[in-house]
């Protein structure tokens, strides 16, 4: 009753207020003139209409708010206990569930296709947030009955899995070493300079794996399980060298304690097995030395194959180059201002690269003068290569004469003459080659490859000249070693004879009590070769770093700070800022890696030195190129793959393998140092392992496999297989080219039909010309004739071109070949009738109902 009284009281109050308002309106209307009364009524109607709209909006807002509260309640119930399932089903019908599912699916589609909507970014972000909130809120309530919680759990786990995959991909990208540094270099200097740093990073990864092999299977077992330092002669510094073994000048030349350390071959013992694990150190040393080449070969070939697959995508590189760069270059996900600046610089650089490519393609100059200048340039470069090879051979021979003298009488220059000359040749010749290459006027990319090939020939010639001279020295050391070995054997025989004579004992004679530092030693030619390679590597590092510091940094400082007070413009004229020497740095890296491959067998510690060198080079050269260098005047992009670098590296790998295999298979090892001492050849370790450690039938298998009667057919079979695969590869390449050509022709024809242009395909034109009067083409309909009258077609004047500018649809409109005649042809064909006039249809003229005896075209229905 109280509630009824309150409702009636409120209703009466509202009714009374309405009556008062109506009376007030009536009084105002009576007091106004007719015109003013009309205006008043109009304003009141507008105000009432606005009030109704506001009430309607409020009702909708209340309704949507109630609907949202109801959906939230449904979601809470869906994620609650299973005991509430019956009540949930009562509160949410099947129709509501279906409608909610449709809305969720629509929101998901909107999230996927939002990027393609032609909306402003503000509207996109707003719609994206609303759609994601809606999906996240109601997606878990779409299950039915007891499976609702399972469905919600699946949805949650799917989202978490997607987020985990995205975060893991970001983590993998962040774990790529020096990726941001390389991208920064690429944005300012182009892809050609960045390709060097990518190659340097790849080389660092390769050497890191080789370092793991050498230290894990050779160095660490010797340190942990081998005999300690000073226990035997090969691990002890000789008595006459101990006074100067710690001098800086001696250590700098890798003598003294460095020479008798784990860095070099001579330190390792020749015990067949060491430690509790019975580790086969000599076998491990040989297998690791050869396995380094095998692993490197596998990685290089695999990288070349992957680059070849990524090299081309089948599209035309020159199609719409500038349009693609203009409209698709920017990355809209960039949010960092510095990254945006780098992207802007990268896009600008890519335009420069493409412009240079187009300019080089349009060049047309005197070909005879260019060929003459190229011949002159090649003659000059051959003279430089021959002179550098002769100079290195002369210096190495001279160093062998210095080695016979006392080292205290030699100056520092005479001691390091070979390394200094080789480093200076590598420093002076590449710029000289670059100056000579200006006569050839090649495209920048082609000029870079020629420059790389010439510097490669220089480095390779210098290295092999050094090796030939070094092996002459090795042969001399082997002769000296034979004499020392004979003297040692004679001394031991005299000792045993004297001991037997004095003590009258013939068995269990103790060895001579001589300190390891006083034992007579041979020259240990393997350690000497390893020292030479280590010295070459260290001197190359020093020259490279000093060149960057003096030639780039000091030059940039002079240009930067003295340009304001100089007589001419130092930036535009001499000396100006330096450019990054791509060819010299790449070939220096490859040449250094060749020395590592050759020297790692004689100096296991050389791989660790190279890892440190590559690590420091990445930071040092990135800093130098960003702070001291400027982009090339002729900016160009690198090829899609680094297979040119990889090809040079593969060639260096093969040429580095030959000296090592020669020393393993031909030269006898030193008798008193290294893991192969006491054997006639180094590979005897494998034969000893096969005989003593493997079953007899395995020894028979290896003996049969090493039979030349089986090796020669196997080699011949491999050669035939390579020839067959090469032929199949060429056939596939030709098929690929034919398919590309046909696809291009089809695209051109489709484009010309779409643009209402004449056919550009000469083959199609010839096929059209073969059709007599085009009698097989169906006549145009009346509607097409009327439309054609108003279009005023373009007159091309080309034979075989349609008046409408469209080509002939061979598949649909005509049959290119008629059936063979039943009787032999006994007369030549008659003259070709005149073609249609411009503006007329290509179909048969009125009255010509026959064509090749096949009858006229079928009537249209």
Automatic annotation (TrEMBL):
Query: Which InterPro entries did the record assign?
Result: TMC, TMC_dom
Q: Where is the composition biased (Gly residues)?
A: 846-855
Q: Could you tell me where the Basic residues compositional bias lies? A: 38-64
Q: Where is the TMC domain?
A: 524-639
Q: Which is one Pfam family of this protein?
A: TMC
The terms describing its cellular component in GO are: plasma membrane
Output one GO MF annotation.
Answer: mechanosensitive monoatomic ion channel activity
What residue stretch is flagged as signal peptide? none
Can you cite a GO biological process for this protein? vestibular reflex
Record's subcellular location:
Membrane
Q: Can you tell me which residues the record assigns to a coiled coil? A: none
- State the superkingdom: Eukaryota
Give the protein name, as stated in the record.
Answer: Transmembrane channel-like protein
The source organism is Cyprinus carpio (Common carp)
Native organism taxonomy: Eukaryota, Metazoa, Chordata, Craniata, Vertebrata
């Amino acid at each position: 009753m109280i509630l009824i009284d309150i409702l009636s009281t409120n209703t009466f109050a509202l009714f009374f207020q309405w009556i008062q308002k109506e009376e007030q309106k009536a009084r105002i209307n009576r007091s106004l003139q007719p015109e003013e009364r009309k205006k008043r009524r109009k304003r009141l109607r507008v105000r009432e209409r606005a009030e109704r709209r506001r009430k309607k909006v409020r009702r909708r807002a209340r309704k949507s708010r109630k609907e949202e509260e109801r959906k939230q309640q449904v979601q809470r119930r869906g994620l609650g206990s299973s005991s509430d399932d019956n009540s949930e089903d009562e509160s949410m019908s099947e129709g509501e569930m279906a409608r909610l599912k449709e809305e969720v699916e629509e929101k998901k589609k909107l999230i996927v296709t939002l990027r393609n909507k032609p909306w402003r970014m503000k509207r996109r972000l707003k719609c994206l947030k609303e759609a994601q909130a809606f999906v996240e809120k109601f997606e878990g309530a779409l299950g039915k009955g007891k499976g609702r919680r399972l469905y919600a759990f699946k949805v949650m786990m799917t989202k978490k899995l997607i987020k985990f995959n995205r975060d893991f991909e970001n983590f993998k990208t962040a774990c790529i070493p020096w990726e941001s540094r390389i991208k920064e270099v690429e944005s300012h200097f182009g892809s050609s300079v960045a390709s060097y740093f990518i190659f340097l990073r790849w080389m660092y990864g390769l050497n890191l794996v080789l370092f793991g092999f050498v230290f894990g299977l050779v160095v660490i077992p010797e340190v942990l399980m081998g005999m300690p330092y000073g226990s035997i002669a090969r691990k002890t510094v000789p008595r006459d060298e101990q006074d100067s073994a710690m001098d800086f000048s001696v250590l700098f030349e890798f003598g003294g304690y460095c020479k008798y350390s784990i860095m070099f071959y001579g330190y390792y013992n020749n015990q067949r097995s060491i430690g509790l694990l019975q580790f086969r150190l000599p076998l491990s040393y040989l297998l690791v030395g050869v396995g380094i080449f095998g692993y490197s070969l596998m990685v290089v070939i695999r990288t070349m194959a992957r680059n070849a697959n990524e090299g081309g995508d089948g599209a035309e590189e020159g199609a719409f180059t500038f349009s693609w760069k203009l409209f698709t270059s920017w990355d809209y996900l960039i949010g960092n201002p510095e990254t945006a600046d780098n992207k802007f610089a990268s896009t600008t650089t890519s335009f420069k690269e493409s412009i240079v490519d187009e300019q080089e393609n349009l060049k047309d100059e005197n070909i005879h003068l260019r060929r003459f200048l190229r011949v002159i340039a090649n003659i000059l470069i051959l003279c430089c290569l021959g002179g550098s090879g002769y100079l290195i051979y002369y210096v190495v021979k001279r160093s062998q004469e210095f080695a016979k003298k006392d080292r205290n009488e030699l100056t520092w220059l005479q001691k390091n003459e070979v390394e200094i000359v080789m480093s200076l040749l590598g420093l002076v010749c590449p710029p000289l080659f670059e100056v000579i290459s200006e006569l050839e006027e090649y495209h920048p990319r082609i000029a870079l490859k020629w420059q790389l090939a010439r510097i490669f020939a220089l480095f390779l010639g210098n290295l092999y000249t050094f090796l030939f001279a070094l092996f002459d020295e090795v042969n001399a050391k082997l002769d000296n070693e034979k004499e020392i070995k004979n003297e040692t054997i004679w001394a031991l025989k005299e000792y045993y004879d004297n001991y037997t004579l004095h003590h009258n004992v013939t068995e269990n004679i103790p060895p001579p009590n001589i300190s390891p530092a006083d034992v007579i030693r041979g020259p240990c030619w393997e350690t000497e070769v390893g020292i030479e390679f280590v010295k070459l590597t260290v001197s190359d590092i020093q020259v490279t770093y000093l060149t960057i510091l003096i030639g780039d940094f000091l030059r940039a400082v002079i240009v930067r700070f003295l340009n304001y007070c100089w007589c001419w413009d130092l930036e535009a004229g001499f000396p100006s800022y330096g450019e990054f020497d791509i060819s010299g740095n790449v070939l220096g890296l490859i040449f250094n890696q060749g020395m590592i491959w050759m020297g790692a067998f004689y100096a296991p510690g050389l791989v660790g030195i190279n890892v440190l060198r590559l690590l420091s080079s990445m930071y040092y050269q990135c800093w130098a190129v960003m702070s001291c260098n400027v982009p090339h005047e002729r900016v160009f992009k690198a090829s899609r793959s680094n297979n040119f670098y990889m090809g040079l590296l593969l060639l260096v790998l093969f040429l580095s393998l030959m000296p090592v295999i020669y020393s393993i298979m031909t030269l006898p090892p030193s008798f008193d140092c290294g893991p192969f001492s006491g054997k006639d050849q180094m590979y005897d370790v494998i034969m000893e392992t096969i005989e003593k450690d493997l079953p007899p039938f395995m020894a028979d298998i290896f003996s049969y496999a090493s039979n030349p009667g089986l090796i020669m057919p196997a080699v011949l079979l491999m050669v035939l297989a390579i020839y067959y695969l090469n032929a199949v590869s060429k056939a596939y390449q030709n098929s690929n080219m034919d398919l590309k050509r046909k696809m291009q022709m089809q695209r051109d024809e489709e484009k010309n039909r779409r643009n209402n242009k004449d056919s550009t395909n000469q083959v199609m034109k010839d096929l059209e010309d073969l059709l007599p009067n085009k009698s097989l083409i169906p006549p145009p309909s009346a509607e097409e004739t009327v439309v054609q009258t108003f279009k005023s077609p373009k007159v091309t004047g080309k034979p075989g071109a349609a008046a409408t500018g469209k080509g002939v649809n061979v598949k649909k409109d005509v049959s290119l070949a008629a059936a063979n005649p039943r009787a032999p042809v006994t007369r030549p064909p008659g003259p070709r009738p005149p073609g249609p006039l411009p503006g007329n249809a290509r179909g048969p003229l009125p009255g010509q109902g026959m064509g090749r005896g096949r009858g006229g075209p079928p009537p249209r229905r």
